[in-house]
Amino acid sequence: MYINYARREITVKVVYYGPALGGKTTNLIQIHDHVADGSRSELISLKTAEDRTLFFDFLELQLGKIGGLAPRAQLYTVPGQARYEASRRLVLRGADGVVFVGDSQPERQQDNLESWRDMARHLASYGFEAQGFPIIVQLNKRDLPGAVPLEHFRRTLGLNGEAPIFEAVALDGRGVRESLRAVMERVVVRLRREISASAA
User: For position 101, which CATH number holds?
Assistant: First the structure.
């Protein structure tokens, strides 16, 4: 979170985290394509030759006011490939909220778990516990044959209800806006608490 009191602006950072090819970039593309030009930036994306995210995707949105401040949401994705762990940690620095994008395919459940643990470890390195931090879980690719049951995915990650789960098909936009709205609601609640505490 960054507050510019002179311009009455508050900037928040939301990171889309998850395994490679899970749908993180697709989420940002869908959001970009369905938000009016005047309320968003261009989508900035750094990719490999294989069209996979190398470092991050970035999109900035303008939202309604929080405590008299005009918020700007900066949305980032992290590269899912194992060799970019340092980049994932760097992108996660300063995050105000996370959308964890899991993959519904049965063969990707171990990848989901490793990515979830990776995220929790990096959050802890910045002084945050996954429980209590604004995290929304999105289970993507629900349209695929053989998609794992929601409860199986919940058990794989060891989720005990602390993070809400949204089912999604990011390619056609299903669950994308709902996930963003939910994480922003949690971020706003946390920001209002922090702003009230600093004003007291």
Answer: 3.40.50.300
Report phi then psi at 40, rounded to 5. -145, 160
Count of CB atoms situated within 10 Å of the CB of 77: 27
Which residues span the domain enclosing 171? 2-199
Q: What is the pLDDT of residues 62-85, one digit of tens each?
A: 666 666 766 778 888 888 777 778
Counting the structural domains of the chain, the total is 1
Determine how many CB atoms are found less than 10 A away from the CB of residue 13. 22
Tens of pLDDT along 113-145? 999 999 999 999 999 987 789 999 999 999 999
Q: Which ranges constitute the DSSP H helices of 68-108?
A: 85-92
Amino acid at the residue 186 = R
Note the pTM of the prediction, 2 decimals.
0.86
Q: Could you tell me which of 4, 8, 11 has the C-alpha nearest to residue 68? A: 8
Phi and psi at residue 22, to the nearest 5°: -85, -20
The answer to whether the beta carbons of residues 181 and 97 sit under 8 Å apart is: no
